[in-house]
Amino acid sequence: MKTTLRDPDHLDRLEDQATVWEHDEVLVDDRVRDRAGFSQAARVVALVAGAVVTVIGLIAALRIDWGAAEFDGPVVSAAGMPFTPTTAVITAVLGFFLIGAAASHDSAARITLGAITGALGAAILLLDGVGTSWNVTDRHGWLALIVGGVFVAAGLLSERRDLVQQRRAVRRTVG
């Protein structure tokens, strides 16, 4: 939309779009781009990543014999990774939180939860001794690190920049 102003009294109707002095001509060029589709795509990718974690955790939790020993049950396998009952429940709960963050409009939630998940994955990869009591492996660490990175990237790409507005104003003195 291009608008040429020659009368300073028109400013009242334009609600401070530009400053016009007497005898000035101002060209205002407004461009609005909608980035909502890009934001939605980033949220869908994060939602899929959160769903993968949830499904893996739920499969592991369903394979555990809860009637025998509750949280002291034997190690089960899901997606090629060993899971204790505690690790299975933590993975499923983390997946539900990830799905909630992916579905929300709050990009800060995706960034924060992604950073926490990525840091958890890095800690698992860097600390070899952590796997002894909870029976986590490098595969758990890589899963958490990759999913955390996906969430941070999705949060940064879908930050509240859905509408980008550019304005160009040129002032010329007439006379």
Write a short abstract of this structure.
With 175 residues, this protein is of the alpha+beta class.
Describe the structure.
There is one protein chain. By secondary structure, the chain is an alpha+beta fold. The chain folds into two domains: 2-35 and 161-173, no CATH class; 36-157. Helix content is 57%, strand content 18%. The protein contains seven helices and five strands, in the order βαβααββααααβ. It has helices at residues 11-14, 36-63, 66-69, 85-103, 107-126, 131-134, 138-157; strands at 2-5, 24-34, 76-78, 81-83, 163-173. The strands form two sheets. A three-stranded antiparallel β-sheet has the order 1-2-5, with no helix packed on it. Strands 3-4 form a two-stranded antiparallel ribbon. Helix 2 (36-63) packs antiparallel against helix 4, helix 4 packs antiparallel against helix 5 and helix 5 (107-126) runs antiparallel to helix 7 (138-157).
Notable features of this structure?
175 residues, alpha+beta, 2 domains
The number of helical elements comes to 7
The mean pLDDT is: 78
Helical residue percent?
A: 55-70%
- What would you call the structural class? alpha+beta
Report on the biggest sheet: 3 strands, antiparallel
Task: Give the termini separation.
Answer: 26 Å
Radius of gyration: 27 Å
Looking across the biggest beta sheet, what order are the strands in? 1-2-5
Number of strands: 5
Provide the β-strand percentage band.
15-25%
